[in-house]
Amino acid sequence: MDHENRRGPGRPRSESSHRRILEAATRLLERDGYTRLTIDALAAEAGVGRQTIYRRWRTKADVVLELVADRPDFAVAVPDTGSYGRDIREFLQSAFAAASDPPTADLLRGLMTEAQERPDFGHRFRHDFLGPRRAAFQVIVDRAAARQDLPSHVASEAIADIAFGSLWYRLLATREPLDAQYADAIARALAPPEGPTGA
Asked: Where are the beta strands (DSSP E) in the chain?
């Protein structure tokens, strides 16, 4: 009998064990980081058997993806300053600051690695984690376009790619700082040279 994907609401362990596992994952990530997180450690911390975890999630990455998709500290704020340039700058400063936190950076690298190795996980990672962040960023772009505040020197469809690509390039490839200065540099590349209207 295949229990891997069964999550019937009537099963006694369902809600309680699910919550305990996610709470345990939060504690272990804060204490040990993503790299040292294991299913054995998670089961022990949550007070459940390994099979209880494997009935719901295939790997630790699956557990963590569900966790971070709902955690308040991973929520995306969308600034509305009345200026495309200022909105971009505030968004990037916030996103880069969050990703530069060492435990968070470790977690993001782990999830991205899993996304490259497992197409099924990659689809969920793009849908559950990357998608909402890109949609939040698109609010800024669409709002600027509506008020004719969007510059013409960068194609609108490339703006999010440049913004997030810059973050992931440093996070995964160079490991250089994702600091406020870098966020400002990317914002200047995306925003008009002078003021919100380029005047």
From this structure: none
**Residue holding tokens 């040292």?**
36
* pLDDT tens figures, 62-107: 999 999 987 766 777 899 999 999 999 999 999 999 999 999 999 9
Return d(Cα 117, Cα 111) in angstroms, integer: 10
Measuring CA to CA, which residue among 74, 128, 126, 135 is closest to residue 99? Answer: 74
d(CA 4, CA 120) in angstroms, rounded, equals 15
Mark residue 18 as left, alpha or beta (left: phi above 0; alpha: psi -120 to 50; beta: remaining).
alpha
Q: What is the predicted pLDDT for the residue at 73?
A: 63
Q: What are the chain's domains?
A: 1-57 (1.10.10.60), 72-190 (1.10.357.10)
Residue 112: name the closest of 164, 185, 179 by CA. 164
CA atoms within 13 A on the CB side of 8: 5
Residue (of 144, 91, 141, 110) closest to 34 by Cα position: 110
Q: What is the pLDDT of residues 152-166, one digit of tens each?
A: 888 888 999 999 999
